[in-house]
Amino acid sequence: MELKSIEKVLGVHESQLLTYMRLSNKRVGLLINFNVQILKNGITRRVF
User: Domains of the chain: which residue ranges?
Assistant: First the structure.
């Protein structure tokens, strides 16, 4: 899980999540951006 509070999720943020997933041997990861009005719009799920 990667928590952010940013204007917009960029490719570098998703790459960071994938790196964390590889290093921890996890297949599913969440990228959560708290800088949105509706929290469910700030959640990105990635499967490795």
Answer: 2-47
